[in-house]
Design brief:
single chain; four-stranded antiparallel sheet; four-stranded mixed sheet; Butyryl-CoA Dehydrogenase, subunit A, domain 2; globular; 3 domains; Butyryl-Coa Dehydrogenase, subunit A, domain 1; about 400 residues; about 15% strand; alpha+beta
């Protein structure tokens, strides 16, 4: 990747914003189990951070994907995982399909206020019985006059308790499971939408996550994103950005924990010398830093191919897989060198340990990434439900 002065200016702007508007409040938000999404996103929207690669006509900056990737990487400077994840849902998980395939009318109604920060967005894909197996979702949207009537529920919905609208994946016909789904914009204040509960999570504490029920929720059919029946395909395209975002956004967080561990191990004494002076410790930290740099190179290569219009499913899946596994490796290895302090909630390594675990689950589990890669390598069978 070759970064320009504009990329560097974006990095500096984000670093200043994070230092002034996010990091001073992270501990408070972690303790509260939620952060003020409308307040924060409103500030980010005014500075143009929420629509870097979105269309100019709807309030975006119209820049290429390398700027969105630059922002994702800088979000790793936030001292928790929950807030960056919530921002990523707004920019790279709930809105890419709408920006790419939505009608002008529906983009004006939902995308423009999401870019400005007036609206908070969430993504409704996973269900209690359908997480990584997206084709198995049961939520239905049946036509009635000029409306869709939606019934079902969604689980593990990031931003769900604060969102103004949800990018909902639902079955709109009884056809084959890969061709019977559609993406629909659903306002969260619509009658019949119920926040069943705010979920209590192991990590990502500052990010609100909801279980949502839909009971005869009626929305206009014009809220459909793109073509009916193309929802599964659109979501797979949307997943490319989500998975690459997840990998890129983890880089600086991993580096921050490695550096914090170096600083702590240098001053922690055991058996008459610092922990860092033990060869097994400084060799291991050097190895982990090398692994982070390798992941960065993979992410940058995927970005370059995306800029060239290539399908990056393979590299995005690899990056997402590696990011999740390396996150566990870095935080577990570093926590060990903190000794008893590593087990205390007050230390950054313990928060990183909890937060990083989600990376191998959310957005497609490690096993799903391996399944995708094996199929692309021609060494695994296709989904038997897939019909020509």
């Amino acid at each position: 990747m070759k970064f320009t002065q504009e990329h560097d200016e974006l990095r500096r702007s984000l670093q200043k914003f994070i230092a002034a508007e996010i990091n001073p409040f992270v501990d408070e938000w972690e303790n509260a189990g939620i952060f003020p999404a409308h307040q924060l996103f409103g500030k980010m929207g005014k500075l143009g951070f929420l629509g870097l690669n979105k269309p100019i006509e709807f309030g975006g900056a119209g820049l290429d994907y390398s700027f969105a990737m630059t922002m994702a990487e800088e979000l790793g400077n936030i001292h928790c995982g929950g807030v960056p994840m919530a921002i990523g849902v707004q920019t790279d998980m709930a809105t890419p399909a709408l920006a790419r395939f939505g009608s002008d009318e529906v983009r004006r109604e939902f995308l423009a206020p999401s870019i400005s920060g007036e609206f908070v967005a969430c993504l409704g894909v996973s269900e209690v019985g359908a997480g990584s197996d997206v084709a198995s979702v049961k939520t239905t949207a049946k036509k009635d006059g000029g409306d869709y009537v939606i019934n079902g529920g969604k689980m593990w919905t990031t931003n769900g308790t604060q969102a103004d609208w949800i990018c909902l994946l639902a079955n709109t016909s009884d056809g084959p499971v890969h061709r019977n789904k559609s993406l629909i914009c659903v306002p969260m204040k619509t009658k019949g939408v119920e926040i069943a509960r705010k979920l209590d999570k192991l990590g990502m504490r500052s990010s609100d996550t909801a279980q949502i029920h839909f009971d005869n929720v009626r929305v206009p059919q014009r809220y459909l994103i793109g073509e009916e029946g193309k929802g599964f395909t659109y979501q797979m395209v949307q997943f490319q950005e989500e998975r690459l975002w997840g990998a890129v956004s983890s880089l600086k967080g991993k580096e921050r924990i490695i550096q914090a561990t170096i600083d702590y191990a240098r001053q922690r004494k055991i058996f008459g010398k610092s922990v860092l002076d033990n060869q097994v410790v400084h060799f291991r930290l050097a190895e982990l830093q090398t692994e982070v740099e390798l992941l960065r190179a993979l992410c940058y290569r995927a970005c370059e191919l995306m800029l060239d219009g290539e399908d990056v499913t393979k590299l995005a899946s690899m990056a997402k897989l590696k990011a999740g596994r390396l996150g566990r490796e870095v935080t577990d290895g570093c926590l060990q060198y903190w000794g008893g302090m590593g087990f205390m909630n007050e230390t950054p390594v313990s928060r990183a340990y909890r937060d990083s675990r989600l990376a191998s689950i959310g957005g497609g589990a490690d096993e799903v990434m391996l399944m995708i890669l094996a199929k692309m390598m021609g060494i695994a069978p296709e989904d038997p439900r897939k019909q020509a």
